[in-house]
Specification:
By secondary structure, the protein is of the alpha+beta class. Helix content is 38%, strand content 40%. The chain has three helices and four strands, in the order E-H-E-E-H-E-H.
Length: 117
């Protein structure tokens, strides 16, 4: 099995609770098909670089997984059919980091600067 990072963007009109549910459903699908999931992150509602389906924002989610290629293909198929997911991408990586992603650590850094001021 190979290591992957799966990132997806959901429609902006869903709630954060629905996004958490979508992340949990995706994890369940990966584990049901024989893969293993690691760190999951919800990055919140963020601005998009360009409009996608007339939307300027989207809910971002990240899942680290250890899965065979057929699980990745099935995940791709399911997310293409989902009405809530507007973009997704799976990238093969050499190893998973236990630290928070750069997006979350950047948020924490900003909070720390505000509290010191």
């Amino acid at each position: 099995m190979a290591l992957y990072e799966h990132i997806f963007i959901a429609r902006p009109d869903i709630s954060p609770a629905q996004m958490e549910s979508l992340i949990e459903e995706t994890k369940a699908l990966i584990e049901e098909k024989g893969g293993k999931t690691g760190k999951t992150e919800y990055w919140g509602l963020r601005n998009l670089a360009y409009r996608i389906n007339k939307s300027r924002k989207g809910h971002y989610g990240l899942i680290d997984m250890d899965a065979p290629a057929d699980v990745v293909a099935e995940l791709d198929r399911i997310q293409r059919l989902s009405e809530d997911v507007i973009r997704h991408m799976t990238v093969r990586v050499e190893d998973h980091s236990e630290e928070p992603s750069a997006i979350l650590s950047k948020k924490d850094d900003r909070r720390g600067r505000r509290e010191r001021s």
